[in-house]
Amino acid sequence: MRRLLALAGFALCLTLAWVVPSAAQSGGEADSSQPTVLEGTLRLGFDQFFSGVEVTVVDQSGTWIGQAVTDADGQWSVVVPGAGTYRVTLDESTLPDGIGLREGFESTVEAAVTEGASRAVVFAVGDAPKGTPFGERAAQTVFNGLKFGLIIAMSAIGLSLIYGTTGLVNFAHGELVTFGAVIAWYFNSSWGGLNLIAAAIVTMIVCGMLGAGLETGLFRPLRRRRLGIFQLVVVTIGLSLLGRQVIQLFFGAEPLPYTDFQVQERWEFGPWAVTPRELVTVAVIVAILLAVGIMLQWTRFGKATRAVSDNSSLAEASGINVNRVVLMVWAMGAALAGLGGVFQGLDTDIDPFLGFQLLLLIFAGVELGGLGTAFGALAGSLIIGMSTEVSTLWISPELKFVVPLAALILVLLIRPQGLFGIKARVG
Amino acid sequence: MDFDIIFGNAARAAFGPEAVILALAAIGLNVHFGFTGLLNFGQVGFLLLGAYGTSVSVATFGWSLWVGVVVGLVLSVALAVALGFPTLRLHAVMFAIVTIAAAEIIRILIGSTDAIGLTGGPLSVSFDAGAFYDLNPYPDGPHDRYGVGTFEFTGQQMWVITVGWVLVALVSLVVYLIVSSPWGRVLKSIREDQDAARSLGKNVFSYKMQALVIGGVIGGMGGVIDAIKTSGADPNGFRPQVTFFAYTALLLGGAATYFGPVLGAILFWFLREWIESFLRQLSAEAWLPDAVADFLSGAEGVISVAMVGLTLVLLMLFRPQGITGNRTEMQLDAR
Fold first, then answer.
1. Cβ contacts (< 8 Å) between B112 and chain A: which residues?
2. Rounded to a whole number, what is the distance in Å from the CA of A186 to chain B's nearest CA?
3. What interface predicted TM-score (ipTM) does this complex get?
4. What is the domain partition of chain A in residue ranges?
5. Which architecture characterizes domain A134-414 according to CATH?
6. Of A60, A142, A161, B230, whose CB neighbour count within 10 A is largest?
7. Looking at chain B, which residue has its C-alpha nearest residue A403?
8. Among the partner residues B109, B113, B241, nearest to A18 by beta-carbon distance
9. This prediction's pTM
10. Counting one residue from A and one from B, how many pairs have CB atoms under 8 Å apart?
């Protein structure tokens, strides 16, 4: 862990921004009643959109056609007089600091459009702009991977402990993460503007109560009714769908940022340029992971938790209050998942799908380490986080989630029990 | 409040192409989960390959539509085999997660900007399904409508759903024949206790693989119908929740039954569209307070999907065997 702390001083982000047109206009059915449009969306990764960026369109001869500024969703569009080839220029100086065009992409692109069609124009934007040396980019992705891996690891604690103590695989765990991010957003940006640090603490309490409520109100009665493992999984899938839709109903589908800690100057540490909020994210999570580790290893509650994970009937027979342990595990796991959501939301903005996107990676981390092993889950999560970010050195950041998922499948091919799991024959 | 429109929309959805696609996905899942006990959570991957196999063959390579259909189905088989080898030996929960992961990998790859030249990437792909509609026996003028009142289809839609439901019937018949054979009894014995099946000398891995391939191809057929219906494919249409919708249909109708997945798919779309249309009508009502109307308008789809989630929870709590199922067949302790 000390080595991890020592690592904690680096910088991030090589995700890409590209333009995704809405699915409806697949690049050009001609319809003369429609205006001819060039358009696009400036975004980084799946959820960071850039507003206020200027895009200028000129025709082949250099005559000025139009100019657009991206809106809050990073979208811009320019109506052009008709079919033809146009030159579209992105004004790089209007991009946020630290954001620039990616290696191999130009600020001016040519786009041909047919009469009455909408044509999407792609600008690949990233936060390791052109000309950054490879070593520096590598260092930044390593820090980014560490931070992402730590967020996954903290969110995974609850999933892993709940599985260990009750055998429940909680597909709604991602929605606990989203719920945390969204509740903190409401406290921070909507209801009276609580400071984000205070909002995060309140969020942990709310999420902990939600977790405890789910356990006492739903999952404990279900265990008593001896529902099979499959039925329980389906219940959590139903909850996950329900939770995501309800969050979307109130929060909306558009990504939104927190009010606090958005614009920060990067501190330079050798090859790394890190914002203070990233340093705090890493430090807080490392501290929490250490605390959880110490608690599981040496406190009464931790020993009881491990005893229940090992054999809950035996634990009950030796006087451990199993239901209380499970309740505490739910409360703690949900609180940590909620906090994970806050950190992830701080990193990428908040939307109702934030947790579900993370869920697969949380699962991948837990499985990679070996289902039900606490240390394995941490190691697996860090590997997942690292491989996700470091892969962007070589492949398009759009594909970065493919790498950890493919790694998971490959590892399971060789070691079906995961890296630290115990071997058991299944099929 | 116009209940003619609400019920018309709901009935159209219940018997339209969407229900055909969902029914095929659910029948495939039934072979995986209902009869073999495989927790396949990546069924959408088979649909995706069926749809993209067809679309890309025609749109990018310029092959005939019928070759495209074959390509789509062959790709589904290939996915089942490629997926089965590393994963069929896994713990059931791990199998579930790896199958979701595999479907997501395919979706991300196909939908990426790097794949634009092949699959259209995020721009989606479209092709000319004329070869299919040339066979359409229904007159398809601009005013030709088939049905009663608000429950009506155009000639093209009629042709898609006729072919679709005939396919569903044939596939259901095939599943009935193979599952009620000795081969099917081995599948069920694997579902109940695979160690027992193995101790009787059955090659459990091989049977699971066969079930995975058969169910996968049936899902792939759903994808092919989807591609023909929309004359193309869009990566956003193949998110993991499609699999969960198929599970909802299967569990609603009754897993491990022959007619359950079909009934479930019809009911699923009927209820989902009914709720959505009802809410849309409701939010336009004058007597509704403005605040409520504002909240409702535009949120109808979100609410109807939320209802799907709620249905799943309630089904598992109160009727895990679904409408037509047998409770003892749903007492799986998945391994």
1. 396, 398-399
2. 18
3. 0.90
4. 19-123, 134-414
5. Orthogonal Bundle (1.10)
6. A161
7. B105
8. B113
9. 0.83
10. 163
